[in-house]
Amino acid sequence: MVFTSHIFIFYFLPTVLLTYYALPYRLRNLFLTFASYFFYGWWKPWFVTLMMTSTLVDYVAARVMSAEGATPKRRKLALIASMVTNLGLLCVFKYAMFTQANINWLIQVFGGEGFGMLQITLPIGISFYTFQTMSYTIDVYRGTARPVKRLSDFSCFVALFPQLIAGPIVRYNTVAVQLYERTHTMQRFASGVSLFIIGFAKKILLANPVGNIADAAFGAESPTALVAWVGVAAYAFQIYFDFSGYSDMAVGLGRMFGFEFIKNFNDPYHADSITDFWRRWHISLSTFLRDYLYIPLGGNRLGRRRTYINLALVMLLGGLWHGAHWQFIVWGAFHGLLLTSERLLGKTSFYGVMPHPVRVGLTFVLILISWVPFRADNLSIAVNYLGAMFGLSTPAAAAPLLGGEVLSINSLAMVTICGLIVALGTQAWDFVQNITWGKVLLSLGLFVIAVAAMFAQAYNPFLYFQF
Amino acid sequence: MQWAKHFVLVFFFLAIIFGVPITQAILDIADEESPQILELFSQVPTEEHLRQFESDLEEYSFFEENIRPVYQLVRYFVRRGLGHKVLLGREGWYFYHPGVKYFTQPYYQDVAALMPEGGDPLEVICDFAKQMRERGIQVVVVPIPGKASIYPDKLSALVDPGQPVHAHTRRFTKELRDAGVEVIDIHDVFLSRRAEADRLNRPLYMRTDTHWTGHGVILAAEAIAGRIKKEFWYREMEPPPRDRYERIKVMVERRGDIPKMTKIPMQERLFSPELVDAYQVMEKKSRELYQDDPQSPVLLLGDSFSRVFQTDAPKSAGVIANLAYELQMPITTIINDGGASTLVRQQLARNTKILRGKRLIIWEFVERDIRFGMRGWQPIFYQDAPPSSADED
């Protein structure tokens, strides 16, 4: 189910809120679990069984690890069982087709025929919930988290619908206490409502319209340089408002049910270096990768050379986490290269001596370039698009026609509005800290407009659903 | 006081999200129907049923039905928003979005994802031409220029008037010809006459419609007729076709099809109709408007470019009637709006008797249908087609 849909806003959410608050406290987690399964199963009912499997395996694994008298060997076996199950699910559902396509390509290079391609549908949100459940078993194994007693509580943590599909990636440690004891206040509920509305408006009123511009530019045969730059800027705003909008909605919904999730974005396009960007963009993923991959690999404790390798490797895998396509690997490698170069220069960029606004501008340009492989359907399109941006390719005969679409007053106004909102740097998270009458009116007004716009828009799922 | 702000925000938010489904249920009951939401429990929750339920829920929502047009109207006034099907051009010109996408996106053969449903149009056309050839009927394909092909400058100021943008159609035409299929390319005719048409203030296409004007119709009819007149059977027809039809110029007030695609309410007030020249064809003797003849040796398969002015006002002024005028003989037609890629051939397959006595099939489709034709390009096998006149000879 999509947050920005009629069924969610007007049927699922009111029903779940009403039932949740009508139930006694002890039954609420159980109810949220079933509601979340319903939410998840709405797309493909049988995929709920995958989530249940992952939940059950990790619950049992943690119980085994923490059982009295559990030997180190048994604890390790339990952890391995959890890893194999979760990474196995990811490998089968997310990477099997990619692996097979590449094996086939290799076989064909050597004159063979290759195998018939598997057709596997990627269960939405699998990358998010498998990471969450793994964080739980790893934390229990490390002894930094106490195992959950009731399966219903753990199921609730894994399936919790507000952040299930596209994050933020909620680590067990951050919500462990809330699973047993959370407060429901009017203030928290109101700030949740306001956050939800802002996220909803970001998606419907900004991300979707500006996404049409990006789609036109990236779908073009060979655009002009100007169209290509406007197109990638449009995409940069689309992915930011889309993904941060989803995160705002997730955090907002969480607050309505008494949970507090982490802040996933912090004004990322005001970063003045790539290192700074990763402190501000998809914070729950970057901290997850830091704590569960970079640090276990040795982090910066094993010398400079190893630090660079670790950084590059983590970004490469971060790219692969986004999707089983070469363009995501290239995107991760590009960021890995930039991060490594900044580490080499002492955690500053090669333009670090420039004034702050210039640094922010140059970082944004690097981010724009990195979004090209991320958005393009394949590497060949990405290369062509980059060529168009830098005037290295000949525009197609019909390329000037795109001007009527991408460079129309409407489109440019939309990109400018997004740019101004980003430039202002106001974050939804800060906006809801202190709710004034003006903010009440603005929130309700935005909600009515966004709902009306939703009625007039075609189905448009969140970009991060594909990851 | 802070509590009051929180309360108001929460109260109105809940009022909206609870109010919509409750009102909908009351309206359903008032209409003596069970509340729509209950349908969810009446079927096994399969993926298909859930999608259908969600789609129905939106389609039959009182609020969606009533708020959507208001929003579309406001969007139009605030930023001339026209929805995803329409592009706003310059000087009051409007364009159908897929018709522009056809040019700006890659050629369908270059990107697997752009291949039309059913199959490769090139192969399907070649197969159709082959099947007809086996019946002694020649097929001539006419890709009709879309509006953006001839008036690209009315969409984007970056394009010069008359600048060719139809590289994909050129490539398709060449590939068809290389495969032995005859093609009449009327793009060059239109582009070369564009400047003159501008000077005389006789546009070849309508501003608010996807189709051509009467002037465009005549250019196309002349080009197609010029090709048919080269056929030996035409030149040797007894009695020679002449003096059967006459043509008169009529002005027709036409509301374009593009505003309808925006679904904006009050279109009659927002988009003024266009006064368009059309050329109506009638029988010289009886003064009756042109009528098709199923016995004609020429069959025209076509889309709305054949239908416009022909079956809608002023009638008998479309490319069919004007082709008949140029030839001075009636033709047989199968036309289907947007369906020239597959639907017209399916109609023909259901009534192969129509092929009896045919010498030539003119198959016109607007160029964007190479990618976006309704139902794609389905291969069709024609069974038990009766012998054509050529066979009988």
In the predicted model, the low-confidence regions of chain B spanning at least 5 consecutive residues are none
Q: Tell me the Rg of chain B in angstroms.
A: 26 Å
SSE run of chain B? HHHEEHHEHHEHHHEHHEEHHEHEHH
Please report which band the strand proportion of chain B falls in: under 5%, 5-15%, 15-25%, 25-35%, 35-45% or over 45%: 5-15%
Mean pLDDT of chain B: 90
Shape of chain B: globular
Structure description:
The complex is a heterodimer of chains A (467) and B (393). Chain A has 20 helices and no strands. Chain A is globular and about 70 Å long. In chain A, helix 3 crosses helix 6 (151-159). Chain A folds into two domains: 6-182, no CATH class; 188-272 and 349-466, no CATH class. The mean pLDDT of chain A is 90. Helix content of chain A is 70%, strand content 0%. In chain B, a hairpin with a 5-residue loop joins strand 1 and strand 2 (94-96). In chain B, 42% of the residues are buried. Chain B folds into two domains: 2-60; 86-392, no CATH class. In chain B, the strands form three sheets. Chain B has a five-stranded parallel beta sheet, with helices on both faces. Chain B has a two-stranded antiparallel sheet with strand order 1-2. The mean pLDDT of chain B is 90. Chain B has helices at 2-30, 47-59, 62-79, 97-104, 121-134, 147-150, 167-178, 187-199, 214-228, 232-235, 257-262, 267-270, 304-307, 319-327, 343-350, 369-372, 389-392; strands at residues 86-88, 94-96, 138-144, 182-183, 245-254, 274-283, 298-302, 332-335, 360-366. Chain B is of the alpha/beta class. Chains A and B meet through helix 1, helix 9, helix 17 and helix 20 of A and helix 1, helix 2, helix 3 and helix 4 of B.
Keywords, please?
heterodimer; A: 467 residues; mainly alpha; 2 domains; globular; B: 393 residues; alpha/beta; two-stranded antiparallel ribbon; 43% helix
